[in-house]
Specification:
mainly beta, SHC Adaptor Protein, 5-stranded mixed sheet, 2 helices, about 30% strand, globular, SH2, Immunoreceptor_sig_adapters, SH2 domain, SH2 domain-containing protein
Length: about 120
């Protein structure tokens, strides 16, 4: 009979980022510890068309990406309206799952510089 091996889970973020995350995330310590950390939060005042925002930390900058709900298809998409091509998702969790394996394009609002990262470290608000 084969012997069962116990797989040890790595500690939460310390070995991956070098610094453990704070016990509680507040506006003052939001994402200070590693690139590709992310959270989904309710959008402020956008209503049902943009119910959530995906906040991603990369190279010391927090990128706030709107998550829009398309009533016609009953699906979600990322970014502002008016894009030629939109990738559609059935749920918020399917967005996270997809971009944890495929790079997400992050666009700096002031310089329009583009960088790519995967969603690696979920953070609870």
């Amino acid at each position: 009979m084969p012997q069962a091996y116990r797989v040890k889970k790595p500690p939460r973020a310390a070995p991956l980022c070098g610094v453990p995350p704070p016990k509680r995330v507040t506006p003052g310590n939001f994402f200070p510890w590693c690139d590709s950390a992310f959270l989904v939060r309710q959008s402020s005042g956008q209503g049902w068309k943009q119910p959530f925002t995906l906040a991603v930390l990369y190279q010391g900058h927090v990128y706030n990406i709107p998550i829009r709900y398309l009533e016609s298809s009953r699906q979600y998409t990322l970014g502002k309206e008016g894009k030629r091509r939109e990738e559609l998702f059935d749920s918020i969790s399917s967005i996270i799952q997809h971009y944890s394996q495929q790079p997400l394009v992050l666009i700096d609002g002031s310089s329009s510089a583009r960088v790519h990262t995967c969603l690696l470290y979920p953070v609870k608000p």
